[in-house]
Amino acid sequence: MITIHLKYEIDADKIEDFEEYGRRWVRLVNRFGGTHHGYFLPSEGDSDIAYALFSFPGLAAYEQYRTDSMSDPECQEAIRLARDTGCIRRYERRFLRPLDGASQPTGGVTG
């Protein structure tokens, strides 16, 4: 499994547009075989940082989603929403893997 972590710098004055963008992508990622874990919006602290997490069974499944989403009309509409409203200033994407209990080292320092 691979989990994608997105950190967004958003326009705090356009939070409603970003919320709509997020709602669309939760549904779309799930439709393409992923599991969306949600969008996390500013509450306390930075007013212009938001996060999203979603997972796919593996990197190949994620790459297939990326390829398929490029020609999907609903995906393109969601991208247009962000571009036209300017609700997203920039974003960073990270790929994470869960810690599997079987891969934990024995002995040494524990967390």
Q: How does this model look, in words?
A:
This is NIPSNAP domain-containing protein. Residues 8-99 form the NIPSNAP domain. This protein is 37% helix and 29% strand. The chain is globular, with a radius of gyration of 16 Å. The two termini are 22 Å apart. It has helices spanning 15-31, 59-69, 73-85, and strands spanning 2-10, 35-40, 49-56, 88-96. It has 111 residues and is α+β, with helices and mostly antiparallel strands. The chain has one domain (2-98): 2-Layer Sandwich (Alpha-Beta Plaits), CATH 3.30.70.100. The protein contains three helices and four strands, in the order βαββααβ.
In round numbers, the mean pLDDT is 90
Helix/strand-derived class?
alpha+beta
- Taking strands numbered 1, 2, ... along the chain, how are they ordered across the largest sheet? 2-3-1-4
CATH C-level? Alpha Beta
Write the H/E string, N to C: EHEEHHE
Q: Fill in the CATH topology.
A: Alpha-Beta Plaits
| Strand percent estimate | 25-35%
Number of helices: 3
Query: Helicity level, as a percent range?
Result: 25-40%
Number of domains: 1
The CATH architecture category equals 2-Layer Sandwich
> What is the terminal separation in angstroms?
22 Å
Strand tally: 4
For the sheet with most strands, the description reads: 4 strands, antiparallel
Can you describe this structure in just a few lines?
The protein has 111 residues and is α+β, with helices and mostly antiparallel strands. It is built from three helices and four strands; from the N terminus they run E-H-E-E-H-H-E.
